Amino acid sequence: MNFPSRFGVIVVGGGHAGTEAALASARMGVQTLLLTHNIETLGQMSCNPAIGGIGKSHLVKEIDALDGAMALATDKAGIQFRTLNSRKGPAVRATRAQADRILYKAAIRHTLENQENLWLFQQACEDLIVESGEARGVVTQTGIRFLSDTVVLTAGTFLGGLIHIGLENHSGGRAGDPPSIGLAEKLRALPFRVDRLKTGTPPRIDARTVDFSVMESQPGDIITPVMSYMGNRELHPTQINCFITHTNEKTHDIIRSGMDRSPMYTGVIDGIGPRYCPSIEDKIVRFADKNSHQIFVEPEGLTTHELYPNGISTSLPFDVQLELVRSMKGFENAHITRPGYAIEYDYFNPQDLKYSLETKHMPRLFFAGQINGTTGYEEAGAQGLLAGLNAALLSQGKESWCPRRDEAYLGVLVDDLISMGTKEPYRMFTSRAEYRLILREDNADLRLTEKGRELGLVSDARWEAFCKKREAIELETARLKSTWIVPNSPESEIINPKLETPISHEYSLMDLLRRPGIEYADVANLKNVPEVSVPDQVSEQVQIAVKYAGYISRQADDIERMRRQENTLLPKDMDYSIIEGLSNEVKQKLILMKPETLAAASRIPGVTAAAVSLLLVSLKKRA
Ligand code: FAD
């Protein structure tokens, strides 16, 4: 194999965004180079060894629906799987897997090394090659020049990375890895809006020094959920328990006593941290009335003793870290293997991006992942896939693509970032999606795989499996509609005890399934009805479609209304200050954000349905 003299796409950075970007582009048949600091750290989890969770598993399943790597790697590496919100409706149900970080990295690397059209190269990228204002390649730290049609930058927390432990700080991309300083300086000289964010991680602990007998144990689900539509339980390695301990008054006193050496509370760190993953010192200050916080003690893998104490992310000095850890039940003799730390890094205002994730200021340059102001592997992976896809499409001379808000969480993520920007690390939640009953984690393939196939992302194997599943759903739906139960038949006797009102006339199985208290399993295989064998993924879709039909059709109406609003343009010269009835707050937001459409205006936080109606009236008056 010879290196191509010119690549279609060069991806800089082999984290979660970079690996999905490179794989997506290569799957599209485009010659792709993945240039990264260190091949050993491909797919490395910088912080918690877990994939998925509420809102996040929705993104993982969407990546999977478009044939990305994250979900299958999780199935191969997950050492504890759970369905969160299992008693709530399907819209907010989520899959979370504790991952063995060594197995996860190995699975990602295996996928990368076996991907056609993909070239890996280890070296730091120091600069971009720019021709006529467009990105046309990269220069490495030793001066090697790689030419390309497009460049996707996914440098994570590495750009100008500054690591803090107490009042000590040093440059770094994350613990043990170099920062990216030269490239950060080059990018700061370009007309992008750059700012600083921060994130933090807890100290790691040696399990041999922990007393688990005094902690609450937290097992995974007995029937383990599967992350990938192409995955199965046989892929899962040995499953193990997590544990729970708590902080206490003593822990909180220790933390308070160390605040004068906290980089966050002495003004050494300016970057804003993730609101939903606060450091332990932040929690003690923000929730001063709480005298205890739950800490999840999560194994980092099957072949290591290291533990990840989820909930005590900190940048306090090491002596304070050790004391606070040892004040907790079970951790009295704990040995810290790696201190916790915070890292500050450059990120770019995502409002300077197009929906394809191409930058507005430099054509052919795409940004994805943490550098766009997000936090989390899943958010990074999803953006990476989109940026890699669109970079490949551009190199093929084709139109870009981005899913709409009613099609995917990925659409919500990109739209939120581009229309509103972010001042703090952005993470996904189901509450960010207005059409969450339609954007479920169980139907990401039905929403996206066909489009992925059309774009060239989806392999033959996945496409065949998907078509089979879609057909099976149709067949099973048709069977339930056409199979009838009559009163006093043996079948009706089986179902009757479950019904509030017994069967009084002939019913189809579909009608019966619609009734409260009846589940798919009740109607699936009745006596005298020919037996069928329906996979869980299929019966789940049939049941959800029937049980939630009313809500789903109402949401479909809302989507239709939103599409009309999407087509209603707000003139650039619209004077919001004179619209009667709008609050000053809404006026200010509209003047600041200048939404392009009525739909974009409606998504600005604080812009109510009443305000949207006033905008519509005002538009009609102008017409
Ligand atoms: P990364 O995973 O950071 O990958 C960047 C890649 O780019 C690396 O491989 C790097 O070597 C490479 N690279 C960078 N610059 C260059 C260059 N010039 N040349 C070549 N290669 C380059 N997420 C959460 O959800 N919750 C948390 O609590 C949380 N805490 C975190 C704490 C810490 C200390 C860190 C470091 C991260 C934390 N994260 C957290 C964030 C999570 O790690 C990221 O969201 C995720 O890894 C982002 O993926 P990415 O692909 O954008 O970047």
Automatic annotation (TrEMBL):
Segments traversing the membrane: 598-619
tRNA uridine 5-carboxymethylaminomethyl modification enzyme C-terminal subdomain domain span: 546-617
Keyword Secreted: no
InterPro entries, A to Z: FAD/NAD-bd_sf, GIDA_C_N, MnmG, MnmG-rel, MnmG-rel_CS, MnmG_C, MnmG_C_subdom, MnmG_C_subdom_sf
Keywords, sorted A to Z: Cytoplasm, FAD, Flavoprotein, Membrane, NAD, Transmembrane, Transmembrane helix, tRNA processing
Protein location: Cytoplasm
Annotated binding of NAD(+), by residue: 273-287
Named cofactor requirement(s): FAD
Residues bound to FAD: G13, G14, G15, H16, A17, G18
Keyword Cytoplasm attached: yes
Signal peptide coordinates: none
HAMAP family referenced in this protein's UniProt entry, alphabetically: MnmG_GidA
Self-association state and partner proteins as the record states: Homodimer. Heterotetramer of two MnmE and two MnmG subunits.
PANTHER family: GLUCOSE INHIBITED DIVISION PROTEIN A, PROTEIN MTO1 HOMOLOG, MITOCHONDRIAL
Task of the protein: NAD-binding protein involved in the addition of a carboxymethylaminomethyl (cmnm) group at the wobble position (U34) of certain tRNAs, forming tRNA-cmnm(5)s(2)U34.
Similarity comment: family membership: Belongs to the MnmG family.
Record's protein name: tRNA uridine 5-carboxymethylaminomethyl modification enzyme MnmG
Gene for this chain: mnmG
